[in-house]
Amino acid sequence: MFRTLRRALCVAAALLLPLAGTQSAQADVGTKAAGAGYWHTSGRQILDAAGAPVRIAGVNWFGFETANHVVHGLWARDYKSMIDQMRSLGYNTIRMPYSDDILKSGTMPDSVNHDGKNTDLRGLTSLQVLDKIVAYAGQAGLKIVLDRHRPDAAGQSALWYTASVPESTWIANLKALATRYKGNSTVVGIDLHNEPHDPACWGCGDTSRDWRLAAQRAGNAVLSVNPELLIMVEGVQSYNGTNGWWGGNLMGVAQYPVQLDVPNRLVYSAHDYATSVAQQPWFGDPSFPANLPGIWDKYWGYIFKQNIAPVWLGEFGTTLQSTVDQRWLSALVTYLRSTSTDGADSFHWTFWSWNPNSGDTGGILKDDWQTVDTAKDGYLKAIKAPGFAGGGSGPDPGGPGDPGGPAACTAAYTVSSDWGGGFNAEVKVTNTGSVPLTSWKVAWTWSGAQKVTSMWNASYTQSGASVTAVNAAHNGSVPVGASASLGLGGAPGGGAVPSVSCTAT
C-alpha cells in the first residue's frame, strides 16, 4: 500500500486468546490455560497446544523498524505499563515490526526514558530490549508475532531484499530470531516480510520477483530451526492485472498456494485500509459500503471461507475522521466475524496501531501515549477475543447503584446533503448527564414520506414515518460531556428537520 509516516512507523501487536463457546477450550480450563504453548493450524482455524481454537485479536506496536531501533513511546511510559494496558483493553497479541538493523551487533535503542521508568532497559541493546518485552508480554499472557517490516530503518522495500540487505541476510536473520526464541511460546509466529508490492509477483516463476517462492524458501528455513512457529505470509499488490493494497492481494493463493515442509504452520496475512491512508476505487462505488464484502472475498476472504488456511488481517486502521472511513471500519468489523457469535472460527487481526504517531491512521492511544481513543477501541469491541478485562473503555464508573446520578442525553439532527431524490443526515448524541452512558437510543418522526435507505454507526427500525435507532456496539459508551453520532441516508429529499428524543442508560 502507499506508505507515508504510518509506514515509517510500523509495529503491530496482537494478543491471542482462545475463544469462549468452544467446548474443547472450556474443557481445558483448570488444567492448562487457554492459548497455552505453541500453536498450529487446522483448516481455517488456529489451535493452541491442547487443540483448542484461539483467535488473534491484537495491535501493532511499532518502532523497532525505525531509526529508534525500539518500540515507540518509551520516552513517555514504562513498557510494562503499556503491555498491561493492552491486556486490560482486551487485546491478546502484539505484532512487533522490526528491521534487520536490530540484528546488527551492538545496535542500541534510542529515545528510551530511564528516569523512573524502563529502568531495567538501561544499557541494553535493541535485541535485549526485545527480549525484555517478550518476557513481560508472556508473563502478562500475551502472544507476539514478529514482523520483518523493513530490510533497514531507511524505509519500505517492495521486495524482500535490497542491494544492501540480500536474501541471504534476510533468511539468516529470520533463522536467528527463530532460534533466539525457540522454546519460548510467547513468540508464536513470524511475519516473513511486510507488504510486498510491485514488482513483486505471485506465481510468476521469476525467482527474483516471485514472493510466493521466496516465502516458501524463508518459511522452510525458519521451520528448519524452530518447527513450532506459525509462518505468516502476506499477499502482494497486483495479481493478473488486479491491483490492491500493498501486501493485501492474496488472489494467487487459489492457484499457487504456499507449500511448507512442516504441515499446519501456514497463516495467510492481508492488509486493508481506509481513505485516510489512500483512495481506492471501491470507496467511490455507488453501492459502498455494501460492495466491501465482495472486495474482501476476492482479495483474501475466500481463503478463510473455503477452509484453505487461517487468514490474519495483520494491519488495518484509519484516523476515523471521515464518514467514509467510519462506514468502512464498521463494515470490516462485521466481516471479520464477532467473537460472541463465531468464537475462534473467525478472521484473526491486529489493528494498526497502538502508537498515536502513525501519520495517516493515528492509534489506539492518543498523543499523550496514555489516553485511549475510545471511539477506535470501541469499534473493535465485538471482535476482541474473550478472557481479558475491559473491552474498550474499562469499568463503567456510572453503573447501577453508582451515586453519580441518572444518565441523560440530548440529540441533534442535521441534514448534510439533499439532492431532491434523497438526502444524508447525521444525528449527534451528547451525554448531558453526570455519569457515562453505556447505551443510547434516539427516535424521531418525519412529517413527510421519508424512508431510511441506509444507516451507519447504529441499528434502526422504522414504522411509517417513525424511526428508532440504537447505538452500535462500538459507540454506546459515551463519557460525560462527550458525543457520539450516527449517519443515515434517506429518500426522498426535501423533508423538514424533525425533533429527536434521546433515551440514555
Can you walk me through this structure?
- By secondary structure, this protein is α/β, with parallel strands linked by helices.
- The chain is 20% helix and 25% strand.
- The strands form 4 sheets. The protein has an 8-stranded parallel beta barrel with strand order 5-6-7-8-9-12-13-14. It has a 4-stranded antiparallel beta sheet with strand order 15-16-21-18.
- Strand 19 and strand 20 (466-471) form a beta hairpin.
- Helix 5 (167-180) runs parallel beside helix 6.
- The longest helix is centred in the first third of the chain and has 15 residues, at 126-140.
- The chain is globular and about 70 Å long.
- It starts with a helix and ends with a strand.
Task: Present the secondary structure layout.
Blueprint: H1 5-8, E1 11-12, E2 16-18, H2 23-28, E3 40-42, E4 45-47, E5 53-62, H3 79-88, E6 93-99, H4 126-140, E7 143-150, H5 167-180, E8 187-191, H6 211-225, E9 230-234, E10 238-239, E11 242-243, E12 266-273, H7 292-305, E13 311-317, H8 323-336, H9 339-342, E14 348-351, H10 374-379, E15 409-418, E16 423-431, E17 440-445, E18 451-456, E19 458-463, E20 466-471, E21 483-491, E22 500-504
Parallel strand pairs: 5-6, 5-14, 6-7, 7-8, 8-9, 9-12, 12-13, 13-14
Antiparallel strand pairs: 1-5, 2-5, 3-4, 4-5, 10-11, 15-16, 16-21, 17-20, 17-22, 18-21, 19-20
User: Largest sheet, order of strands side by side?
Assistant: 5-6-7-8-9-12-13-14
Computed structural class: alpha/beta
**Low confidence ranges:** 1-32, 386-404
Number of distinct helices: 10
Helix content: 10-25%
- In round numbers, the mean pLDDT is 88
Q: Work out the strand percent.
A: 15-25%
Catalytic activity: Endohydrolysis of (1->4)-beta-D-glucosidic linkages in cellulose, lichenin and cereal beta-D-glucans
Family: Belongs to the glycosyl hydrolase 5 (cellulase A) family.
Organism: Streptomyces purpurascens
Enzyme class: hydrolase
